[in-house]
Amino acid sequence: MARPVIPTTGDKARWTREVLEPTLRKSPERPGPFTTISGRAIDRLYTADDVAGIDTTRDIGNPGEFPYVRGIHPTGYRGKLWTMRQFAGFGTPEETNARYKELIAAGGTGLSVAFDLPTLMGRDPDHPLSLGEVGKCGVNITSLADMERLFEGISLADITTSMTINSPAPMIFAMYLVVAEKQGADWKKISGTIQNDILKEFIAQKEYIFPPRPSMRLITDIFGFCTREVPRWNTISVSGYHIREAGSTSLQELAFTLRDGLEYVQYGVDAGLKVDDFVPRISFFFNSHSDFFEEIAKFRAARKLWAEAMKTRFGATDPKSWQLRFHTQTAGVSLTAQQPYNNVVRTALQALAAVLGGTNSLHTNSLDEALALPTKEAVTIALRTQQVIAHESGVTNVVDPLGGSYFVEALTREMEQGTLKYWETIDRMGGMVEAIELGYPQKEIAEASYQFQQAVERKEKIIVGVNDFIQENEPPIEILYIDDKASEIQLARLEALKASRDNGAVRRTLDALKKTAAGSGNTMEPMLECVRAYCTVGEMCDALRDVWGEWEETPII
Amino acid sequence: MDRKIRVVIAKPGLDGHDRGAKVIARALRDAGMEVIYTGLRQTPEMIVGAALQEDADVIGLSILSGAHMHICPKVVELLKAQGLDDVLIVLGGIIPDQDLPKLHAMGITGVFIPGTPMQHIVDFIAANARVRSDA
Questions:
Q1: Apex A285 CA angle, A282 and A287, nearest 5
Q2: How close is the nearest chain B Cα to the Cα of A331, in Å?
Q3: Which of A115, A117, A469 to mutate to test the interface with B (most CBs of B within 10 A)?
Q4: For testing contact with chain B, the best of A116, A131, A375, A470 (most B CBs within 10 A)
Q5: What confidence tier does B135 reach under pLDDT thresholds 50, 70, 90?
Q6: Which pLDDT belongs to residue A293?
Q7: What is the DSSP letter of B97?
Q8: What is the pLDDT of residue A482?
């Protein structure tokens, strides 16, 4: 009996000559291009030749071991499934509170708060720029009173909450802490995440208020405060999601996000913190886009890059500092308004890529999100998609099932090497803050998004239902329509609040906040006092605007 | 010779998602139009001011946050007050079907949702913009 032949190095050249070339002469391949959605060229076959330089022990290792390519948990999803965390928020705090209670009842295991644009931009509902925006893209939170309504009947000691808030992160976090305090929950035990990632706002999503340097100080103030007072809180969720949505490639998402992470660690160290005291509470947030294997490679490379950078660049010795934990959201930008039911399939594939990449928590988008905020029915299908992957597909039985795949390992290495190259460029500029001030990542992303759009226009990239397989006269689907009731309610509440609270205390606490901001103390303490006095988000942000000014970008097309 | 079509692309409101606005700005420029991108967080007053100052033939609004039914009527009204009611307004973003009749009634017929081919937008503007003479 013939022994099985294990392909060895050098075999690819022979195969190309003896098998491939005669075949291509007879039946040529489709015209292609055979590239990822990011434009990366992909070979038709990967063999042992493509992973020849990889030392499996040193470069890949095993799950739960440095450099964590195969995951941070030795048991993968056998120990614990990822957290199914659905981002939600709209209208008044009461409406969102009701949606949270439904999500918890449907088996959701964590909350994730979406705020409206006025809250995200530190403006009260009565500001002229808030016109038409109150409660539209998320829930409106103006003061502590709204935060109390948002979590009414939900015990903060028993649930973890993720809050997507950046410039006003300290204000919103302070409100959460005061609600927890009023519920009798111990700050030392509560857990959750604030996004608190300002660098990607300057790079991509543009929800910034203050200039980069004071913005970085607010973040290191939170690092310092939480290390002492709220040790289980994830102080930052360094986000590639928005970088990708703004049009970056998969590699740019990986490289810029992790480089943002390095910048935060450096600023923390410069502020006098010890690496192993605050780095374990840094978490990440990635996009899972449509190119299946490129995304999986991105997640695997991310863990390795972070582990090695923490060890060698910053001398971290606690394995918790090396282990990159991340949340994933499927790609909103990949959803189409045309034939929206196809989005369920897109989301399922993207979610599967995130799971095969070892995500620690996951949000799946709803089928109607290219049209509006999702309906309750659409959100349920999105959650069910995760449950089908977790409980029916079988992929959770084994840790890192794609480990050792020639293709996946080769691609993982390519992502790693490409990232290191981007880091060199950014390091030469002096760091990420400097690179942002020069407009470097912004320019790279604008270029990539235009290239992609052109590829779609030329039909080099097919989007089903959009530039091919088009269907005329589609029946409309039912969507969630948010009226202006929330705006009226929140405006009336703001007026009532200003009439009923102790406005002397408001002035005193805001003055104290300004004084600290102008000096060098930790801003979290005076922020908590402002919140307890029912200062509004707009008032607290205005106080800091007075001291630090506002950031304005030069747009790059 | 006819002067180039002049387009002001604006991002009104608080939203910072500017990918669409920037891609369109570049596509219109590549199609031979003159494009002025206002940047983020523009009030209707600022947008109409820019259109006046730039002698624009077209205003392109990019709104993804759901605030379009507040912003569009204001822009239309302010343009009218300035005597600029011949300026073509086009709108891109997340716009529910049910808002279309009201937008059409305001005179906004070029409404483009995600997935619209860029060429389609270029053609719409080329066919509907009224280019002022240089005189």
A1: 165
A2: 14
A3: A117
A4: A131
A5: very low
A6: 98
A7: G
A8: 83
Query: Contacts of residue A130 in chain B, CB cutoff 8 Å?
Result: 14
Which of A90, A116, A129, A287 has the highest number of chain B CBs within 10 A, making it the mutation to test binding with B? A129
The CA-based angle A356-A408-A281, given to 5 degrees, is: 50
Task: List the B6-10 sheet strands across, edge first.
Answer: B34-37, B6-10, B58-63, B88-93, B110-112
Task: Confirm or reject contact between B101 and chain A (CB < 8 A).
Answer: no
List the strands of the sheet with A83-88, edge to edge: A233-234, A192-194, A161-164, A110-114, A83-88, A361-363, A326-330, A282-288, A236-239
Selection from A328, A479, A462 nearest residue A389 by Cα: A328
Q: Report the pLDDT value the prediction gives residue A3, as an integer from 0 to 100.
A: 56
**CATH number of the structural domain B6-128:** 3.40.50.280
Q: Which residues of chain A register pLDDT less than 50?
A: 1
Q: Which two tokens stand for residue A239?
A: 């986000």
Which backbone phi and psi does A149 adopt, to 5 degrees? -70, -40
Domain locations in chain B? 6-128
Query: Token pair of A1, please?
Result: 């009996």
Q: How many residues does chain A have?
A: 557
What are the chain B neighbours of A125 within 8 Å (beta carbons)? none
- Separation CA A488–CA A220 (nearest Å): 37
- Dihedrals phi, psi of A396, to nearest 5 degrees: -90, 0
Contacting residues of B for A343, CB less than 8 Å apart: none
Cβ contact, residue pair A481, B96, below 8 Å: yes
- DSSP β-ladder status, A326-330 and A361-363: parallel
Q: Do A453 and B67 touch (CB under 8 A)?
A: no
- Interface contact A85, partner B, CB < 8 A: no
> In this predicted structure, what is the pLDDT of residue A103?
80
Please list, residue by residue across B77-111, b when 16 or more beta carbons sit within 10 angstroms of its beta carbon and e when fewer do.
Answer: ebbeeeebeebbbbbbbbbbeebeeebeebebebb
For A2-27, the three-class secondary structure string (H helix, E strand, C coil) is CCCCCCCCCHHHHHHHHHHHHHHHHC
Are the beta carbons of A162 and A111 closer than 8 angstroms? Answer: yes
**E runs forming strands in A293-401:** 326-330, 361-363
Q: Is A253 on the interface with B (CB under 8 A)?
A: no
Q: Is the pLDDT of residue B132 over 90?
A: no
- CB-based contact (8 Å) between A444 and chain B? no
Q: Establish whether the linkage from the previous residue to A67 is cis, with ω within 30° of 0.
A: yes
- Output the pLDDT for position A231: 97
The phi and psi torsions of A554 (rounded to 5 degrees) equal: -95, 115
pLDDT band at B3 (very low <50, low <70, confident <90, very high): confident
Cα–Cα distances in angstroms (integers) from residue B40 to residues A278, A435, B21, in the given order: 34, 21, 10
Q: Distance, in angstroms, between B42 CA and closest chain A CA? A: 8
Dihedral angle over CA of A548, A549, A550, A552, nearest 10:
-110
Contact B117 A467 (CB under 8 A): yes
Q: Please, what sign has the CA dihedral across residues A206, A209, A214, A219? A: negative
- Give how far the C-alpha of residue A438 lies from the chain's centroid of Cα atoms, to the nearest Å: 24
pLDDT at A556: 78
Dmax (CA) of chain A: 92
- Cβ B118 vs Cβ B99: under 8 Å: no
DSSP conformational letter for A61 = -
Asked if A338 reaches chain B (Cβ–Cβ under 8 Å), the answer is yes
